[in-house]
Amino acid sequence: MNIHHHIGIMTISSSSLPTNNKSIFSVSTRPHFLVPSSFSLPFISTSTFIHFHNHPRINKLHLRRRRFNSVTKTCVVPLPTTIAMSTTTEWVQQDLPPPLTSTSPPPSLFDGTTRLYISYKCPYAQRVWITRNTKGLQDKIQLVPIDLQDRPSWYKDKLYPPNKVPSLEHNNEVRGESLDLIKYIDTHFEGPSLFPTDSPDKEFAEEILSYTDTFYKTVVSSFKGDVTEADTAFDYLENVLSKYDNGPFFLGQFSLVDIAYAPFIERFQPFLMDVKNYDITLGRPKLAAWIEGINNIEGYKITRSDPKELIESYKKRFQANP
User: What's the CA dihedral at 206, 169, 135, 138 to 10 degrees?
Assistant: First the structure.
């Protein structure tokens, strides 16, 4: 079994895992996640990786000696209880702090600690969360989730009067607005640069970023009307994705532009397929390649939500019918 560390993540190569029903794969934690021996593992492919995030208290990988064709028959891995999966890539999500509610005391505000206030379900907050992760700032920017249905009063009264997420507490100041924050983090913190500094790449990036609101409104308007109204928005993405040929992303390589769109594509794709039977990638090979590429970005994957939960949330919010 090939095991290596990559950016604080323990990775097991899929080439090491069997795909027949004689294998057993289990994750031992509280509660237990178990795939029985009679269950086939169709999600294992040559392009799939299973990621186990280290936990400060539980960081050992235990493997039984019983093997099947040089692969462990049973793999027991103590992990945090938060688990997230997608249909194309399997991973275990990082251990996340619980959201703060109206009964939660505030942290030590303005004590020099940099804090990012988010909601796990908010796509705008997810943008900033992804940026933090991609730049490797998990130890520099503390994640503070807020329960938007039961917000603590101190958040508005003592920290951020607009009472929205995301917000960033840094250098004794609090800033908001997701597109502003992802740029701020990119320029004020260490880590790989995620935005071009030279024209015309910067101008092109700003142009695509400026379309995000129009993109959102256009797609949402199709939820209750003719779904083909969304064609304009997704055709725009397909067109701008054709400009660069040095990678699948908007600027060729992964950037803040991709981060700005990722949370919304994550929600629109499964929702439109479920409610309208509308495949956003049909006839759009560039968009399909972009989705495949974004799903391989580690800083994004650990922020993803269960697609089923997203679908149900959007159904309730927009009261959409097939």
Answer: -150
Between CA 105 and CA 288 the distance in angstroms is 44
Distance CA 304, CA 302 (A): 6
Query: Model confidence over 30-58: pLDDT tens digits?
Result: 333 333 333 333 332 333 333 333 433 33
287-316: per-residue pLDDT in tens?
A: 999 999 999 999 999 999 999 999 999 999
- pTM of the predicted structure, to 2 decimals: 0.72
